[in-house]
Amino acid sequence: MNLARVVGTVVATRKEASMTGSTFLVLERLNQEMKSTGEFLVGVDAVGAGEDEVVLYAGGSSARQTAVTRDRPADAVIMAIVDSFTIGDKTVFRR
Question: Whole-prediction pTM value?
Answer without folding.
Answer: 0.92
